Amino acid sequence: MDDNTFIPTAFIEKMSTILPEHLNIDDLIAACRRPLRRAIRVNTLKISVEQFLILAAEKSWELTPVPWCAEGFWIERKVDNESTPIGNTAEHLAGLFYVQEASSMMPVSALFHHFDQVNDATLLDAAAAPGSKTTQLAARLNNQGLIIANEYSSSRIKMLHANIQRCGIKNVALTHFDAAVFGQWLPNTFDAILLDAPCSGEGTVRKDKLAMKNWDQSAIESISSTQKSLIESAFQALKPDGIMVYSTCTLSLEENQEVCLHLQQTYPEQVEFLPLNKLFEDAEKTVTEQGFLHIWPQVYDTEGFFVAAIKKTDYVESPQAKKRLGKFPFQPASQQVTDSLYQYFDQQFSITEIQGTLYQRDDEFWLFPDNIIPLINELRFSRLGIKIAEQFGKGRKSGFKTTHEFATCYGEQCTVTIALQAHQAREYFQGRDIHDIDTAGSKGEVMLSYQGYVIGLGKSLDNRIKNSLPRDLIIDKNLFECNGETVNLLK
């Protein structure tokens, strides 16, 4: 128990008035003072849950299933070097799992509890950074359809993209707006929307002892006003019969139930609350009379959280938008160039199944999700799809250079990879070339794998692999241990 956790007296008094009768304030305070259990979510775009469980057992990781997410587990690491952050393990760097608090997995699970149009859907993640829910959405969609991941904070866009890239996601477009614009700019557009709203963060005190240092009731009321604007706009952007999940990591009614009830009062004929009492076996313990989930930290031993599922039953009016988009810098790639690039991927990596529409900007080639094409002239994007290659040289000396992003998204199709042992993979993630390695006669660009999973690209030069890892992904310290393993080539 941590007595250094700051819990304001006014907060305790307030929570005493809204706690359900079957819960008590002493248990809430005690739960807030306990350290938060670590949790991870398996990235099924890279590895199945069954394969990951085998891998975890080999590493003596103890996993306990998260009831509301089939891919989620609480984790205890018993053998691995505990001085290595879990985010610096090889499995995490390869995108096999995402470090995500257990209750944070609930909004996406709640969305797909009521939404089953997964093959060609267009989704909005209205407040996306750092990317836990965006990557969870992409995995549930199996990289199909389109996710517009929006983040208002410019400082968090880079982290959002890095997590999307690491997890091998190719159906995302990034935007950088106040999420309140979507109702005006893209009314009745999205099949489903996740609004994990900015909030006072009362539920996060278990991982941040000072999360409530500046707790103030007037601030909560101000935040609630912002949340009401966001939920109205998101609802306007939702298609009729579409599903929206509203969630926060806070406990006050003003930021949770009252925001959803405000939406219902604004659109009494078009708002339908969908029950979440059957989302998982013990959901009834935290379900509200409206069917929302109000997650108190002591009930499931998690952060505090709130989740509501809402259906839009009919059209609603949206404010008229005045758009100034500027010139779109991409052009569809010619068929000749497309054929040449895809032939290179086939010859070099045996990769033939490439989905999406190829666009070109100068010497860069980008793969856009098909669903984005109708929206190109409707919205300004920070980043569209994935950059898969660059062209260099002219005439006979011209060629293509593949990107790390292409490797993370399509590397699993590669039939021949150069497999690295732990010490070599560690060198790779540190940005160093790999020496004294059997390249099996390969020439040019090659896919590099570790434990059977592609981790990136290199260039084969006799008995050396030149490192192609982007510099902003290099990690110098606290990487996984090597254990003296020797070189091995796998195919």
Please describe the topology of this protein.
Layout: H1 9-18, H2 25-33, E1 39-42, H3 49-58, E2 61-65, E3 72-77, H4 90-93, E4 97-99, H5 106-114, E5 122-125, H6 132-140, E6 146-150, H7 154-166, E7 172-175, H8 182-185, E8 190-196, H9 217-237, E9 238-248, H10 257-266, E10 271-274, E11 293-295, H11 297-300, E12 305-312, E13 331-332, H12 335-349, E14 357-361, E15 364-368, E16 383-384, E17 386-392, E18 399-402, H13 404-410, E19 418-420, H14 422-429, E20 434-435, E21 444-450, E22 453-461, E23 464-467
Parallel strand pairs: 5-6, 5-8, 6-7, 8-9, 19-21
Antiparallel strand pairs: 1-3, 1-4, 2-3, 7-16, 9-12, 10-12, 11-12, 13-14, 14-15, 15-17, 17-18, 20-23, 21-22, 22-23
Helix pairs in contact: 9-10
Note down, in words, how this protein is organized.
- By secondary structure, the chain is α+β, with helices and mostly antiparallel strands.
- Among the domains are: 36-99, Alpha-Beta Plaits; 102-312, Rossmann fold, CATH 3.40.50.150; 331-371 and 380-406, Nuclear Transport Factor 2, Chain: A, CATH 3.10.450.
- Helices cover 27% and strands 23% of the residues.
- The strands form four sheets. Strands 5, 6, 7, 8, 9, 10, 11, 12 and 16 form a nine-stranded mixed β-sheet that branches. The chain has a five-stranded antiparallel β-sheet with strand order 13-14-15-17-18.
- Strand 14 (357-361) and strand 15 (364-368) form a beta hairpin.
- It is globular and about 75 Å long.
- Mean pLDDT is 93; it is low at 484-491.
Offer a concise description of the structure.
Helix content is about 25%, strand content about 25%. It is an alpha+beta fold and about 500 residues long.
